[in-house]
Every structure is written in structure tokens, then in C-alpha cells.
Write a structure and sequence with these properties.
The protein is α/β, with parallel strands linked by helices and 552 residues long. It has one domain. Helices cover 37% and strands 20% of the residues. The strands form 5 sheets. It has a 7-stranded mixed β-sheet with strand order 9-8-17-1-2-16-18, with helices on both faces. Helix 3 packs parallel to helix 12, helix 6 runs antiparallel to helix 9 and helix 6 packs across helix 11. It binds nicotinamide-adenine-dinucleotide and lycopene (LYC). Lycopene binds next to strand 1, helix 8, helix 10, helix 11 and strand 17. Its cofactor is FAD; NAD(+); NADP(+).
């Protein structure tokens, strides 16, 4: 717990001219503009030490199955019920949920600590979050506090510090909007900037609440498990029909029904961009409803000690349950036996076998690298047709003197400015200098001279340390999607192989991958006999869902 003195600044900058000019953000008044965001925490820093940590992150546009099938002499005796490849939050939630249901699980993690994008690293006495920093689903109420629930399932709890604002937007034409924790304060601030759109604002965010309330009323489990799904339809028909109605819709279309002001629509784009890396027209309405309301319902809460503590607590909880986690365990192959996934092989040659294999690597890595040589299942072809890898990002982690940050500084800043295009890939130090310069000019005078530590991460860094193909931030739709309809769940075209994480329904985000973990554990538990299951209904539902996805 060294984080009484923890501060970060983050600058996601999908910004990049190429990103902005290659997606519909340009048609929504952001053309030629570079986007970035800044995040930092500031609690009692100067009391504990003189310096603070700062993290800047900026997105950059960047653009293998040894067949083990039926290998004779290989003992495929399963010691485990499930092997999970990777210990991101998606993998850890799936593993711990299965373990508490009585399964024996082995997690194989390539890196030296758990967490993936929700991990941390330490340098010069500072602790930096490597990625995740905006924690949805971490409150003490409702059904959507999935991070809190995942920890509590394995007897863990973390002290959290509420963020008074989720983000402070600094948009062109001097539009400054703070997203306050209190919904009424946020609406008051937004309507004060757009008084002529008060009704539209209330209607759009009102639809978000309708979705959030429906989601929050359900007990969240696998949507691929018919006994649960039909049970929820029976118990909460209106809520389920509401969700089914919004499933194929996107936030931008709904916003346009109520809002006409282009600057306000651009603001809603920025709201969606933060959580989906695409504009509102490409952001599923269910995801928008979830995040645009949870931040006011449960609020954004930051764990004391840093985000890395969540994964560490889950990993400890997993071991308490009698399951195992292996670090420096780089899975290079998923072993198939007569078309069924039965085990994994590590880069050092070790092999482990289980009844089921769950991959927390992205679907691109799972099917492109761990299953080399297999024909791509139809479902995966469909996924790759609809979704592409979101660009990676540039990150800057800095230690700065505390007095550069005013005491009431908001935690996250999103800055969108008109700047000339630059070549970021080739010149990361130059870019970092520019970003810091812009921050100094716009937000924190004296920033440059107060830096005592700085490290710049590029897409390559993220590829190496987060084990994500091209360092991708996650999947994003190639074109305008039909809401969440095309997003695959956890089962795959390979028997015994499941996927979990952000390339599964409902997509990017810690809370989203936690939900994917809960869904995956439920479906796997039913398949290995730890939950009720109906094979006939299963076949019918899985076929129906596969067909629905082809409509996306
Ligand atoms: N809220 C925020 O501020 C924020 C910021 C950044 C990222 N995130 C979210 O985090 C999400 C990612 O979570 P996730 O659970 O999908 O995955 P993840 O990428 O965080 O974790 C995957 C883990 O699998 C491991 N791995 C990959 N291939 C492996 C292999 N072959 N063998 C062994 N281990 C392997 C990686 O080392 C990593 O630890 C992203 O969608 C993103 O939205 C959130
Ligand atoms: C701010 C700044 C500056 C910076 C930034 C940072 C960051 C980057 C952050 C990020 C974040 C994120 C990404 C987030 C995200 C999140 C999300 C998206 C979430 C989501 C979630 C979702 C969910 C949970 C969903 C769910 C769903 C459901 C349950 C559904 C249901 C349905 C029904 C019932 C119907 C049925 C039908 C069929 C199946 C057909």
C-alpha cells in the first residue's frame, strides 16, 4: 500500500491524425483535430512526499497453431478442470468464478505479475498503472459492481477513493465540461453550456438510464446459457426486452434523435470515444448506457495501492481456493486432440492438460498464433470481418513535483485541440515533448521543469509487455456495427475452447471484461457439470445466437 502518494496523468491520444481522419469523427466536426486525454490522481501527495507520479498516454495509429492434434504418445490426462491462458482481469475473473464453483483451475501468465492491461510497474520509487485507471463497477451497490463482486467472491475487499469527477473535457471553442460524480451537477453543467438543447440532453441521457436500470436489475451470468437466459426473461420480461431492443443499436443514432447541435453531438462523440475508441455512431448503445450512468450510480472509485492491487487480490484469492497460477508461462500452442482443445504447451516445452481451455489472449492471438494451422472457424471469420484491432497508444509515465498540480485538479482530462499533423511513430521522444508542452500550456504551467522521472511507451512496448497483437487497445468495429449484435460471446468453433476478455461481448473496458469473465465461468461450469445445463436448449440457443451474429 504505497499509494498515499499516488498520482498519474494519462494521455490517450488516439488522436492521431490518421485515426481521426479514417473514422467518422471527421464528419462530426473533429476533422484535423488531435485528441488526447490526461489522467492523474492527487490525494495527499505532498504530505507524504515531494514528488508525484504522472502518466501520459497517447494513442498511435499502427497497423501462428502448431498442430498438436492427435499426437500419439501424448498423455492428455487432465489434472485441471480449466486452464486459463493469461491473467488479465477477464482471465482472472473467469478463473476465480470457476474456482469458487469448485473447479480446479490453472492460470498460465506470460509475464511476471498478474493483470495484463490492469497491471502495474515500479520505477524509482513510483508505482505506475500500465493501462486501466478509470474503474467502473467498483462501488458497493447494485448488480453491476462486477469488480467488487469478483473480489468479494474470493473473500477480498479493497479500500477505494472516490473520483469526484470522471473526466474534465477540454474541447475546441473553449468548451469545458466536467463530468461530476453527481448526475444532477453534470446535467446542470452541460445544460448551462447548451441551454437550447436541455430537452435533448435529458432525453438522451434518460435513455442511457433506462438501459442502465434494466442491466442493473438483472443477475448477470452467461447469455449463452439458456436456463439462465430464459429464467431472466421470465422474471424480468420488460427489462430483458428493453435490452434486446437496444442490443443492435448505437449511441450516435439515438443521440441524433434528440440532439441537433453539432458541438453537443461532438461532445457525445468524445464521451463515447473514451470508452470505445470510436465515435458515438459506432458505440453500442448498451455499452454507452452502462458507462455513462455507472459513473454517477456507483461512481468511479480508485483502489488505494493502485489498480494492480485488483489483479493481485484476485490471484491470491484464486490460490486460496486451491487453484494455481504460473508466471513466466508463455503459452505457444493450444493442444488439440481430435478437434477438441485439451491442453496447452509453453515456450519451455512444458505441457498441461485440462477439460477446458479458456484464452484471455485476444481472439486474433488465440486463432492466429496459438492455433496456427487450423482453419479459421466461421464465427471467427465473421468477427474479423466486423471488428479490427484498435490502434495502440503512446504512454508517458512521469514523476513530477507536486506543486505543479493545483489541489483541486481533476483526475482525468480529455484535451482536443487543432494542431498540425505530425509523424508520431518515428519520433516518440519528440511526441512526448510536444504532449508535455501542450499540457504545460493548457493545464499545468511549470510542468516541464518539475519532471523528475519520465518513461515513454510505444505500441511496441504494449505489444511486448501486454502481449497484445500490435499492442492493440482492443477490438473496434470496421464500419458502423449493429450495436453489440456481432460481438461473439465465450464459446468458440473449437470444442472445449473458450475466449474471455475484450474481444468477446461486450468489448473493451475492465468492467466489460469482468462481465465476460463471469459469463465465461458460468458457461464453462455448465459444460463441466458444475451448473445446471440442458443440452437440447443449449444447441438451440447457440445456433440462434450464431445466426443473430450473422445479421450484424
Ligand atoms: N479503464 C481503463 O482505464 C483502461 C485502460 C487500459 C485498458 N483497459 C482495459 O483492459 C482491457 C483488457 O483486459 P483483458 O482481460 O481482455 O486482457 P489483458 O490484455 O489485460 O490481459 C491479457 C493477459 O494475458 C496474457 N497473455 C496473453 N497471451 C498469452 C500467452 N500466449 N501465454 C500466457 N499469457 C498470455 C498477457 O500477458 C496479459 O496478462 C481492455 O479492453 C481495456 O479496455 C482499461
Ligand atoms: C477519461 C480519460 C481521460 C481516459 C480514458 C481512460 C480509459 C481509456 C478508460 C476506458 C474505459 C472503458 C473502455 C470502459 C468501458 C466499459 C464498458 C464498455 C462496459 C460495458 C459493459 C456492458 C455490459 C455489462 C453489458 C451487459 C449486457 C447484458 C447483460 C445484455 C443482456 C441482454 C439481454 C438479456 C437480451 C438478450 C438477447 C439475446 C441474448 C439475443
Amino acid at each position: 500500500m504505497n499509494l498515499g502518494c499516488y498520482q498519474t496523468i494519462q494521455f490517450p491520444r488516439s488522436g492521431k491524425v490518421r485515426f481521426l481522419s479514417s473514422n467518422p469523427l471527421k464528419s462530426s466536426h473533429l476533422k484535423g483535430i488531435q485528441a488526447g486525454s490526461v489522467k492523474f490522481r492527487n490525494f495527499q501527495v505532498s504530505q507524504r512526499r515531494k514528488d508525484v507520479t504522472m502518466r501520459l498516454k497517447s494513442m498511435l495509429s499502427v497497423d501462428s497453431v502448431v498442430e498438436m492434434e492427435g499426437k500419439e504418445g501424448v498423455s492428455t490426462e487432465s489434472k485441471y478442470d480449466a486452464i486459463v491462458i493469461g491473467s488479465g482481469i477477464g482471465g482472472l475473473v473467469a478463473a476465480t468464478q470457476l474456482a469458487v464453483k469448485g473447479a480446479k483451475v490453472l492460470v498460465c501468465e506470460k509475464y511476471v505479475i498478474p493483470g495484463g492491461s490492469s497491471g502495474y510497474y515500479q520505477r524509482d520509487g513510483y508505482t505506475f498503472d500500465v493501462g486501466s485507471s478509470v474503474m467502473f463497477g467498483f462501488s458497493d451497490k447494485g448488480n453491476l459492481n462486477l469488480i467488487t463482486q469478483a473480489l468479494s467472491a474470493v473473500g477480498r475487499e479493497m479500500e477505494v477513493i472516490p473520483d469526484p469527477t470522471t473526466v474534465h473535457f477540454h474541447l475546441p471553442n473553449n468548451l469545458s465540461v466536467r463530468v461530476h460524480r453527481e448526475y444532477s451537477e453534470f446535467i446542470e453543467e452541460l445544460t448551462s453550456k447548451f441551454p437550447h438543447e436541455k430537452e435533448g440532453i435529458l432525453k438522451f441521457y434518460g435513455k442511457c438510464w433506462k438501459i442502465f436500470n434494466a442491466l442493473n436489475s438483472l443477475q448477470l451470468k452467461s447469455l449463452e446459457e439458456p436456463i439462465y437466459l430464459f429464467g431472466q426473461f421470465f422474471q424480468k420480461p420488460l427489462e430483458c426486452l428493453t435490452l434486446a431492443y437496444y442490443l443492435p443499436q448505437n449511441a450516435g443514432d439515438i443521440a441524433r434523435k434528440y440532439v441537433k447541435d453539432p458541438q453537443l453531438l461532438s461532445f457525445i462523440d468524445a464521451e463515447c470515444f473514451i470508452v470505445s475508441t470510436v465515435n458515438a455512431l459506432r458505440t453500442p448503445m448498451i455499452n454507452a448506457g452502462m458507462v455513462l450512468c455507472d459513473r454517477h450510480f456507483g461512481g468511479i472509485n480508485y483502489p488505494v495501492g493502485g489498480v494492480g492491487g485488483i489483479a493481485e487480490s484476485l490471484a491470491e484469492g484464486l490460490i486460496d481456493q486451491g487453484s494455481e497460477i504460473l508466471y513466466k508461462a508463455n503459452v505457444t500452442n493450444i493442444i488439440l486432440d481430435q478437434g477438441k482443445a485439451v491442453g496447452v504447451r509453453l515456450s519451455d516445452g512444458r505441457e498441461f492438460f485440462a477439460q477446458t481451455i479458456i484464452s484471455n489472449a485476444t481472439r486474433w492471438d488465440t486463432f492466429g498464433k496459438l492455433l496456427k494451422g487450423e482453419n479459421l472457424p466461421k464465427e471467427e471469420e465473421n468477427f474479423q470481418k466486423i471488428y479490427v484491432k484498435a490502434p495502440s497508444f503512446l504512454s508517458i509515465h512521469m514523476g513530477v513535483k507536486a506543486d505543479v498540480l493545483p489541489p483541486d485538479t481533476d483526475c482525468h482530462h480529455f484535451v482536443l485541440e487543432g494542431l498540425p499533423p505530425k509523424d508520431y511513430e518515428a519520433k516518440k521522444e519528440l511526441i512526448a515533448k510536444e504532449i508535455i508542452g501542450r499540457l504545460e500550456k493548457k493545464l499545468f504551467p511549470g510542468l516541464k521543469s518539475s519532471i523528475v522521472f519520465k518513461e515513454v511507451g510505444t505500441p511496441k512496448t504494449h505489444r511486448r509487455f501486454l502481449a497484445r497483437d500490435i499492442g492493440t487497445y482492443g477490438p473496434m468495429p470496421r464500419q458502423i456495427p449493429k450495436g453489440l449484435l456481432g460481438m461473439p460471446f465465450n464459446t468458440t468453433g473449437i470444442s472445449g475452447l473458450y475466449c474471455v476478455g475484450d474481444s468477446c461481448f461486450p468489448g473493451q473496458g475492465v468492467i466489460a471484461v469482468a462481465f465476460s469473465g463471469v459469463m465465461c465461468a458460468h458457461r464453462v461450469a455448465a459444460d463441466i457439470g458444475l451448473e445446471k445445463k440442458s443440452p437440447i436448449l443449449d444447441t438451440a440457443l447457440l445456433r440462434l445466437l450464431a445466426w443473430l451474429r450473422t445479421l450484424a
